[in-house]
Amino acid sequence: MDPITALLHEALEGVRGLDAGAPASYIPELANADPELLSLAVVGPHGRVRVVGDVEQDFTIQSISKPFVLALALADRGRDAVLRKVGAEPSGEPFNAISLEAGTGRPANPMVNAGAIATSALIPGDGVDDRTARIVAGLSAFAGRSLWVDEQVYASESGTGDRNRALAHLLRSYGVIDGSVDIAVETYFRQCSLLVTARDLAVMGATLAFGGINPVTGDRVVAEAVARDVLSIMTSCGMYDYSGEWLLRVGLPAKSGVSGGLMAVAPSQFGVAAFSPRLDAYGNSVRGVAVIESLSERFGMHLLEPHDSVAVPAFTVDDTDSGRVLRLSGELGLAGTERVVAVLRELADAMPAGAAVTVDARELGRTHREALIALRAEFERMPRSFVLRE
Amino acid sequence: MDPITALLHEALEGVRGLDAGAPASYIPELANADPELLSLAVVGPHGRVRVVGDVEQDFTIQSISKPFVLALALADRGRDAVLRKVGAEPSGEPFNAISLEAGTGRPANPMVNAGAIATSALIPGDGVDDRTARIVAGLSAFAGRSLWVDEQVYASESGTGDRNRALAHLLRSYGVIDGSVDIAVETYFRQCSLLVTARDLAVMGATLAFGGINPVTGDRVVAEAVARDVLSIMTSCGMYDYSGEWLLRVGLPAKSGVSGGLMAVAPSQFGVAAFSPRLDAYGNSVRGVAVIESLSERFGMHLLEPHDSVAVPAFTVDDTDSGRVLRLSGELGLAGTERVVAVLRELADAMPAGAAVTVDARELGRTHREALIALRAEFERMPRSFVLRE
Amino acid sequence: MDPITALLHEALEGVRGLDAGAPASYIPELANADPELLSLAVVGPHGRVRVVGDVEQDFTIQSISKPFVLALALADRGRDAVLRKVGAEPSGEPFNAISLEAGTGRPANPMVNAGAIATSALIPGDGVDDRTARIVAGLSAFAGRSLWVDEQVYASESGTGDRNRALAHLLRSYGVIDGSVDIAVETYFRQCSLLVTARDLAVMGATLAFGGINPVTGDRVVAEAVARDVLSIMTSCGMYDYSGEWLLRVGLPAKSGVSGGLMAVAPSQFGVAAFSPRLDAYGNSVRGVAVIESLSERFGMHLLEPHDSVAVPAFTVDDTDSGRVLRLSGELGLAGTERVVAVLRELADAMPAGAAVTVDARELGRTHREALIALRAEFERMPRSFVLRE
Amino acid sequence: MDPITALLHEALEGVRGLDAGAPASYIPELANADPELLSLAVVGPHGRVRVVGDVEQDFTIQSISKPFVLALALADRGRDAVLRKVGAEPSGEPFNAISLEAGTGRPANPMVNAGAIATSALIPGDGVDDRTARIVAGLSAFAGRSLWVDEQVYASESGTGDRNRALAHLLRSYGVIDGSVDIAVETYFRQCSLLVTARDLAVMGATLAFGGINPVTGDRVVAEAVARDVLSIMTSCGMYDYSGEWLLRVGLPAKSGVSGGLMAVAPSQFGVAAFSPRLDAYGNSVRGVAVIESLSERFGMHLLEPHDSVAVPAFTVDDTDSGRVLRLSGELGLAGTERVVAVLRELADAMPAGAAVTVDARELGRTHREALIALRAEFERMPRSFVLRE
User: Fold this and answer.
1) DSSP-derived 3-state class of residue D170
2) Residue A272 — very low, low, confident or very high, per pLDDT cuts 50/70/90?
C-alpha cells in the first residue's frame, strides 16, 4: 500500500465507528442497503486512482447525477438557455421542496429535485430510451467506463415517485418543461438509477477538477467553462440545505446522493468520493461527510485556503552566451505578472552594465490574456536590455 | 499610469455607461448620494494599491462591515460560539427578511441583517461606545488606517431603523442576543456608518485574501482560519439572494453594501473594491457588479477556474559535489507530493549507478502535515541513495 | 313582475355598470366567455324561484361544485373520515396554492383545489365514469334537475390541468389520496365542468339553507348535520383569500367559481346565486360580489346581524272552558324557554286565585332537547295550577 | 339552583376530568396559575347571569381584549380607517406569527398579536396612561363594572415582551403604526393585563350578542354595526389557527386568551364564557373548548343551524268591528314578507265577499327597509279590501 493510500485507509477507519443515521427509507429499494458498507476513492491530476474499503460495491448514483446532467445540458444548450429554465441560487429549503420562483416558475437551482428534472428535460431526445441513452453515454464519459441502470431501483423509484411527478406537472404548468411529463420524469428516475462505485464518482469528480478532461482516459468530456459552471453551482447548492456550513467547514464543491454516495472536488487537485448508506437529517452520508471533512483538513484542500502562489509561473534561470534567460513555465495570471516584474527589478538592480535579460514565455501553459498584455506593457517601460520572447 | 492601472481604467470606463438602478432610498441620507460617482481599487500580494476613478470619495461601509465584524467575533469567541447564535446557510431570501431558524431562532447567516446584528452583539464591551470602539479599531486594522463614523448617516439610520429594531427584539425573544436591544442596534447602526473609500475596501479585502495579514501594513489582523471562515461565508451568502448567480458568473467571495460599495476577494491574489451608488433589485451596485465581473473574467480570477498547479512546490536542481540536489520552495500539498515523487522517479530512471539525490525541503513555505508524512513514506520505499533533508 | 323580483331587478341593474376584471384566462374555454352576461336568482323557503337577467345562460359550475361534493363525501364517509384527509382551516393562501399541512400532507380545507381533489377522491366508484356518475346524480339532486358535463370545457381543463395533476401526485405522495391519480384528477375536472344556471345554483344553495331539503322538490338531499358542516366550511373558506373580508362585509356562507358563478346562502332564509364572468384578483365575480353584498345589506341577511328572536316559539292564547291555554308553535330553544317562563310569570301575577293555565307544546316544531328539559324543570317549580302538555 | 343553571353545572362537571394541556408558560406570571380552576357563565337576552364553578376567580383577559379594543377602534375611527391598518383575513398561522401583508405591511387580522397592536394603536390618547384609561373605560362598559389592570402580570408581560416589541417596530417600519413604539406596546400589555371573571366575559360577549347593548346595564356600548363587524372577525379569526375547525364543530363567534379564558357569542341569544388555564397546542383552553362545544350542541346554538324562522314576524289575529285585523310584531325581513303574503292569500281565499282585512305593522320591531317596500308593493296588487297600516 503506497503512503497516500495508507493515509486514506487511516482516514476511512477514523470514521468507521460513526453509526448515527440510517439508509434512506423513502425509496423502498434503498432502505435495504447494508448500512455498514464504506468506501473511499481519490483520483489525482495524473489519473492515478486510489481506493480503500468496499471498493467493489456499486450503488445507484441518485442525486450525484445532477451535476453531470447539468454539465450535459450546459454543453448542449449553453448557459443562458439553461438559466432561463432553472436558477442558480441556493434555496434555503430541502431538496424535495415544492417551491419555484414567483412569476417564472423556475426551480431555485439544478441541485434540488425540481431543478434537476427541469435540467434533465433539456437533454434532447425522442422518448425515455433515447434521452436516457444520451445521459448514460455522457455520464459514462465522465466515469471513463460504461455505466448502466439498475432496473430494480428504477422500478422502485418510479413506483413511489409521486412527489417528483407532482414537481414535473408543476414545472409544465409554468412552461419550464415542455412535452410529456412522463418522459421527463421517467428519464430522471433512470438517470438516478445508474450504478456507480466510489471509484467511478472520484473519476467523475476529477474530470470536473481538471477542467472537463477525464484524467484517467485523457478525454475531454466537456469544455472548461462547463466544468467551472458546474463546480460553481455545486459549491453554492450541492449539499442541500447544509451547503453553506459544508463550504465553511470543508470548502469543496460537492454533491451527495440519497443512496449514500458523496463526491467532492478539489479544483486542479483531486476528485474524491465516499460511499456509506447512513444519512443525516440533511440527506447526506454521515461517514461520507466526516471522511471528506477530515481529508480536506489534513491535506489543506479547502477552497478558501490561502496558497503561496496561484496563477504564478515557475521560474528557471539560465546564464547563456547571449545573457541571462529567465524561463517561465506553468500559469501566468495577473498576480504572476506582478511577480515576474518584481523578479526582473531585483535582477536589474544586481546586473552589471550592458548585461541583457531575456524572459522566455514560450513554455507558459495557461496564460490569461490581460496578464500577458500587462507583462508586455511592463517591458515597454523597462531598459532596452530586457527582452520578452513569446 | 502603470499597465495594470491602465487595464483597471479601461475596465472602469467600460461600465460607466450603465445607468440602470438608483441609490438606496430607505435610508434618507443615502438617497442623496451622487449616482454618477465611480471608483475602483485593487490591492495585490505585495500591498501595492491601484486606484482609478473618484478615488477620494468616501461613503459609509454599510453591509460590507458584516464580514469584518464577523471576523472580529470569530477571533474573539471562536467558530462554535458564533455558530450557536447564527447559521452559515444562504437563506434564499432578501437581506432584511424577518426569518429565523425554527426552534433556535438563529438567523440564517451573518450576512443578512438579522445575522449581522446577532454577530455584532457578540463583540464584547460595555455600552454602545465601548463596543463601537472595538469594532472601529478592528476594521481600522483591516483597512490599515483609522476609520471613523459618519454621524449624520448614523443618525439617519437610527431614526428609520424600525425594521432592524424589530429583528433585534425578535432575536432577544429567542435568546440569540442577550442584554439591551438598544445597545445591540445602535452599535450595529454605528458600524454601518463607518466611512471608507474604495481603496480602504480593497485593502480590507486583500487582508482576507492573504490569510488575515494586511499586505499594506504587514500586520496580522486575524488568524488564517478566521479569514478562511469569513471568505467561506462571503462565498455562499455575500451577495444577498444573488449570491449563487454571482458565484457562477464571477466566482469571487464578495460583499456588497447599500451605499454602493462592493468588495471582492481573489484568495491569495487580490482584494478588489468598487463604488457606485446605483443599486439593482438585489441591492448590489450595478456598475460595481459589472466591473468586478469583467475583471474576474479578464484576469481569470474565478474561484473555480482550474490552475496549472495548486499546492505544488517550485523545484530547482543543483549538481553539487555530494550529488544532485533538488530544492523545494513554495507550498507542499498532497498534489505536490505526487509531483515530487514523479520527478524523482524520472531522475532515478536516468541516473547512473551509485549516484545520489538529496531532496532539500528546508525552504518549503506552506507545508501540509499529511503531505509531508506521505513524502517521508515515499522516501522509505526508495533506493537508499535518495535522501530527504527537512 | 312581483315586488321582490322587481327589487332583484333593481339590484342587478345597480351593478351592471361595473366593468372591472376579466373572465378567467387560464382555462382556454373560459377565456371566451361573453363578459357582459349577468344573471341573479333567489330561492326562498317555500321553493319559490325568482330570476332576473340572462336567466337561460348556462355555464360550468367550476369551484362551486366543491361544497356539494364535500356534502356527498360527508354523507358517504362521515365527518371524521373526511377530516382525516382534509382540514377545515382557511389557508390564507390562493385557491391553487401548493401547500399542505406539515406532517400529514392534508390540504388546508375542501374549498382550495388540493382539498377539493382530496374530497372528490373520497367519493366511491370504479373509474372516472362511475365516480362522475355518482357526483352528477348527487349535484342533480341538489339542483332539482339533471345536470350534465360540458365536454368541451372538460377537455380544455384536462388539457391544461398540470397544476391540479401536480397537486394530486403530491397528495398521493402523502397518502391523502389512494389509487390512480388520473382517475382522481379526471373526475375532478368533470365535476368542475358540470353545466348550471344561476337558478340551479340558487336552488342548490337553498337546499343547504334549509337543512339539506331541496325546497323546490321537497326531497331531502343530505342530512341536516351535513348541510350545517358544509355551510360552516363555506363561511370560513368559501371565497378564497377574501373569505374573511366577505364574511365581514356580506356575512353569508358562499362559494365562487372561476367561470363567474357565485352562490350564497342565508341559512333558513334563501339560496342566492349570481353569474357574471368578470373576475377580481381573488378569482371572485366582480358583479356577483357586488350584487350579493347589496342584497345582504338591503334585506338584513348578514349572519351576524342580530334578530329580534331566534329559537323562540310563537304564542297564541285561548281562553277555554278548562282555563287559559298558551299554545306554542315554531321552535323552542334555550332562549325560548326563558321567554316562555317570563310570559308565564306575567300571567301568574295577573291571574285570579284558582285559575289554571295549560301550556300546550304539542305543536312545537323544532325543539332542542335541553330546552325542553329546562322547561319541564321550570314547571316543577311553578304553582300546581300550571300544566305543561307535551 | 334554577334548571338552566343545573344544566350548566352538569356541563361543567362533564369536562372537569379533562387534564390535558398546561397553563401558558411564556409569560412567567401565567405559568403559576392553578390548573384546576374552572368556571362557566352564561348571560341571556334579559341580562340574567348564570355562573357555576370558581365564579369568584379573576384572571387577566389577555387576547380576549382584542375584539373589544377592535370595537372601540371601529367606533372611534370607522371601519374603513381600521381596515387600512389591519386586514380581516384568517392568516393560517399562529397568533404570534411575524407575517404581514406584502406591500402594505398590514397584519392579517385584528385577532393575531400584530393586528391587535395595530388596532390598539388606533385608540387615541396621549401616552400610555391616557390610552389605557380609554381602553379600560371602554371594556368596563362592555363588562358593566369597572375593570382594573393586574400590575404584576403587566410587569411580567412587559419584561418578556420582545416578540411583541419586534412586531410593533415592524409595523412602524411599514407605517402601520405611527408614533412611539413604546407607547403602543405598553398600552397593549396593559390592555392584556385587565382582570376579569368568567361572568365579566359572559356579559361582554352578551353585549356583542345583542347588537352592542349591554343586557345587564341596558346601556348601548357600541353601535349595532360595530358589534356585527366584531362578531364577523371573531367568527373567521377568533380561535387562532383552530378558527375554521371551531366554526365547523361549535359554530359560535369566539375568542380565547392565553390565561385560559374563552368567550363565545350566540348572536341574539347568549354570551357565554369559560375559564380553565390548561391550554391546547393552539393556545385555547382545553376544558373551555370542550364545555362550550357541549353547550352549543345541547342548546342548538351553532350559527349555521337552521331555524324554523328567522326575520319572520309573529302574528295575532283579532276580529274587530271594522273587520279582521292581522297584527305583526317582532321582526320583518324578506322571508317574513313572503310569509305575510302567504297568510293573506289564505285569508283571502276563505273570506266572505265584502269582508276587509287590515294588516297592522305598527308594532313591528326590527324592520328591513326593502322588506317593507316589498310588502307595500304586494298590497298594491291585492284587492282593495286589504289595507296596510304602518
Assistant:
1) helix
2) very high
CA A72 to chain C, closest CA, distance in angstroms equals 27
Note the pLDDT tens digit of each residue in D15-72: 999 999 999 987 888 888 999 999 999 998 889 999 999 999 999 999 999 999 999 9
Hey, are the CB atoms on B166 and D167 less than 8 Å from each other?
A: yes
Contact C301 D232 (CB under 8 A): no
Chains that touch A (3 or more CB pairs under 8 A): B, C
Give D 132-171 residues with CB within 8 A of chain B: 162-163, 165-170
CATH number of the domain that residue D357 is part of: 3.30.750.24
Closest CA to A28 of A132, A152, A115: A152
pLDDT (tens digit per residue) in B173-196:
999 999 999 999 999 999 999 999
Closest C-alpha to D64, from D255, D347, D294: D255
Q: Residue A174 pLDDT > 90, yes or no? A: yes
pLDDT digit string (tens) for C317-337?
777 887 888 888 888 887 788
Q: Among the three residues A231, A266, A298, which one is the final residue of a domain in this structure?
A: A298
Instruction: State the residue range of the domain holding A13.
Output: 3-298
pLDDT at position C309 is: 72
Does residue A307 sit within a domain?
no
Contact B163 D181 (CB under 8 A): no
Backbone angles phi, psi at D164, to 5 degrees: -70, -35
Asked whether this complex has an ipTM greater than 0.90, the answer is yes
User: CB neighbours (10 Å) of residue C98?
Assistant: 18
C309 falls within a domain:
no
CB interface of C with D, residues 82-141, below 8 Å: 83, 87-93, 108-109
At A189-221, the pLDDT tens digits run 999 999 999 999 999 999 999 999 999 999 999
Q: DSSP strand E in chain C: where?
A: 39-43, 49-53, 59-60, 195-196, 254-256, 261-266, 270-275, 314-320, 323-332, 357-367, 386-389
State the smallest CA–CA distance between residue B82 and chain A in angstroms. 13
Residue D234 included in any domain? yes
Structural domain total, chain D: 2
- At how many degrees (to 10) do helices D162-173 and D181-192 cross? 130
* Shared domain check, C122 and C263: yes
In a domain, D46, yes or no: yes
Cβ-based contacts under 8 A for chains A and C: 38
- Tell me, yes or no, whether D232 and D343 share the same domain: no
Q: Are residues D241 and D277 in the same domain?
A: yes
3-state class (DSSP) for residue D102: coil
**Among D298, D326, D359, which residue terminates a domain?**
D298
Verify that A357 and A292 share a domain, yes or no.
no
Candidate from A89, A301, A315 with C-beta closest to B244: A89
Tell me: pLDDT of C287 over 80: yes
